[in-house]
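For this section, I looked closely at a protein sequence along with its fold in token form, which I now present.
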Amino acid sequence: MEQMGAVNSELEDLFQDKKRVRNPLVPIGAFMTAGVLTAGLLSFRQGNSRLGQTLMRARVVVQGATVALMVGTAYYYGENF
């Protein structure tokens, strides 16, 4: 049991040493992507395929912006991925 505690403390030390960078815009982008996706799927289900298609295109744009924010943040802070 003590051996497991030693491993956990080593992992905690490793994670504390790692530089953590949080970008609050990434979760917002993820929620926006999920919201637009949900709205698009509901539109398709209701039979409004034109609106659904527009929302699916908007989802791609929002999702691309979210990925660009993630890559941009990693590049700015020098993270290796």
Q: What stands out?
A: The chain has a mean pLDDT of 80. Helices lie at 2-17, 25-46, 49-77. The radius of gyration is 20 Å.
